Amino acid sequence: MSNPGSFADTVKQQADIVRIIGDYVRLKKTGAQNFGGLCPFHKEKTPSFSVHTTRQFYHCFGCGVSGDVFSFVQKIENITFPEAVRAVAQKLGIQAPKQNYSPEEAREAQLRTALVDMHERACAFFEEQLRRPEAAKAREYLAGRGLDQETIRAFRLGYAPDSGFLLRDLFRGADDQLLRDSGLFSWKETEHAPRPTGGGDAARVTAPAQSSAERRPAASLYSKFRDRIIFPICNESGKVIAFTGRRLSNDDKAGPKYLNSPETAIYSKSRVLFNLEKAREHIRALGYAILVEGQMDCIAVFTAGFKNVIASSGTAFTEPQVRLLSRHTHNVVVNFDPDTAGAAAAERSLGLLLEEDFQIKVLTLEQGLDPDLFIRGRGPAQYAAALGRAPSYFSYLLDRARALHPPQTAENKAKAVNYLLPHLNRVPNRIVRDELAADMAQKLGIDSAVLRQELRRAVAARSGAVKTPAEAAMTEAERILLRALHPTEATGFAVAQHLVEVLRTEHLHTGLATEALIENAISRCVGAASFSASASATEARADGPPRPLGDQQLLSAILMRDDEPLTAELVRGAVNALRRRRLERMQRDLRTRIVEAERRQDQGSLPALLQEKLRVDRELAASHEA
Ligand SMILES: [Zn+2]
User: Fold this and answer.
1) DSSP string for residues in 128-145
2) Ligand 1 center to residue 279 CA distance, Å?
3) How much distance in Å is there from the Cα of 39 to the middle of ligand 1?
4) Which of 28, 79, 240, 569 could form a disulfide with 119 if both were Cys (CB 3.0 to 4.6 A apart)?
5) CB atoms < 10 A from the CB of 216, how many?
6) Cβ–Cβ contacts within 10 Å for residue 471, how many?
7) How many CA atoms lie within 13 A of 78 on its CB side?
8) Distance 44 CA to ligand 1 centre (A)
9) What DSSP letter does each residue of 541-564 carry, written as one string?
10) Averaged pLDDT, 117-141
11) Digit-coded pLDDT (tens) for 272-299
């Protein structure tokens, strides 16, 4: 790995592996030379990850990963070896020599280095712009949200000026492709320069034609963020890797209210939690994290002294994000109302946290106030009191079930149970699940044996009862596939033929509600080489094998709705959704088997299961990025 005398070796000599890994994983002293913790590379409840102080080595007895400090940083940050060396050197305050890359590993690493550098410069630029006279409105807005100078500095808030050319001028002379890869710019693929005013991409205006003498490729680039408050997003090492821009004007033509950086070589939305770099040590010290929705809420809560707060930035959690958080704690207080606006996203987030064995409490503030408004109105002490009173997620759900369906009648009891089952269902540990069911039965006044039986049935039929994100999108995917499998002149027979091949090889439709319909459509496509371009639901009914009426109506409804063009991209997306769904099922199945194996202390089959789970996790993560 590191040759004696090399820069890497010098860094390694000085690095304390326990301290470096300790930044990412909660470690406890477990022996004279050893520290232990939960492995960040596979899911586990009892620590099997161990770090040896004198040998400067880590090893996981669960999944078998091991290596030195660089291999750890490389793996967990998903970077190359030279980058890991640099990262560790930086943590130690050692100056890295300029050239440290071999040509073959250089390109990606250099791109990332260049992008990090650009983001730092852009961030400083936005900060500086906020102090200018033109930014009066932005400063007013921030002051109105109760943010003082110190907070603005701490979070490095800034202002993106209305002119999109100022930021571009900052990078004058930089490689055009690099600018395009940075995610900081928009452009128009014409010879005319756009008029860079207004907020988002929606505000592209066709400019009057210009003479060809004025055409310059770089001139067509303009800042993606215009007339917006800028919130920098940092990675775990505190480096700025992306931005969120909040629109200042009320004009919807200026683009979305919140505009985020696109995915780049340094930024993957699903792998970053806002404010984690500031909050993580507090999360560990306090033993839990506060999870809020928006960046403004996060800043308000943090500034009020609750420093263990992070934001999901308004979208549903992803598994990598949950994994990221689980390196620091398994306890969260979620401070958003799971039943309002972002309900679907919130529910998915909570479901994912449940599946990863998090202990969840739900903090609902009076009158549906968001944390920012609540703290400004009532003060931090009241917020602390509310935090202390937050009920567990299941108490919260139970209260809701009882409010929605007062359990005085048998019918309402059944409704309350049906409301609760899908949530209960997601708890991976059977013992915990049974305990919750018993508690639920008692509070609803029903027989706990009956409820537990009901629960087991629901768990067995889990795929149908609980929708994962991919499955929630499934109806749409199935609809697209069925349309593509009943080709018209517009959708094309070639697409259908290709789809048949994919479905036949990968059996992606197995277990779908529409499995029979799809299978049928496939045999029709295969059987009818002369299959004309006029397939319709009516014809399908006439010459297809008999099917239940429900299916037939569904198919008709799907084929009737040709309101959107069926592009190759849509079909590809639908196929990918099916692939993800299958992986998610495998993941769930493996999770159950791992829990069972852990319970039985079955050391024989556990490593293979964990390996398999790791493979599926990776494949799934890759499919999300695709
Ligand atoms: Zn492991």
Assistant:
1) HHHTSGGGHHHHHHHHHT
2) 25
3) 5
4) 240
5) 10
6) 18
7) 15
8) 8
9) HHHSPP--HHHHHHHHHHHH---S
10) 96
11) 899 999 999 899 889 999 999 889 999 9
Determine how β-strand 359-362 pairs with β-strand 331-334: parallel
Type of residue found at 303: T
pTM given for the model: 0.61
192-231: per-residue pLDDT in tens? 444 444 444 443 444 444 444 344 455 589 999 999 999 9
- CA Rg value for the chain: 27
Question: Closest Cα partner for 184 from 203, 171, 198, 195?
Answer: 171
Name the residue type at position 403: A
CA distances from 302 to 305, 360, 390, 595 (A): 5, 20, 18, 36
Is 483 in contact with 455 (CB distance < 8 Å)? no
Residue 147 Cα to ligand 1 middle (Å): 42
Measure 57 CA to ligand 1 centroid, in angstroms: 14
Domain boundaries defined on the chain:
7-92, 108-267, 271-390, 397-465, 467-626
Which tokens go with 291?
């999870």
The verdict on domain 108-267 having CATH code 3.30.300.180 is no
CATH topology of domain 7-92: DNA Primase; Chain A (3.90.580)
Distance 67 CA to ligand 1 centre (A): 12
User: Which residues, 6 or more positions from 281, have their beta carbon under 8 angstroms from its beta carbon?
Assistant: none
- For the 271-390 domain, the top CATH level (class) is alpha beta
Centre of ligand 1 from the C-alpha of residue 41, in Å: 5
Provide the mean pLDDT of the chain.
80
| 334 within 8 A of 362, measured Cβ to Cβ | yes
The count of residues in the chain is 626
Q: What is the pLDDT of residue 241?
A: 95
Say how many Å lie between the CA of residue 303 and the centre of ligand 1: 36
Distance between CA atoms of residues 443 and 427, nearest Å: 19
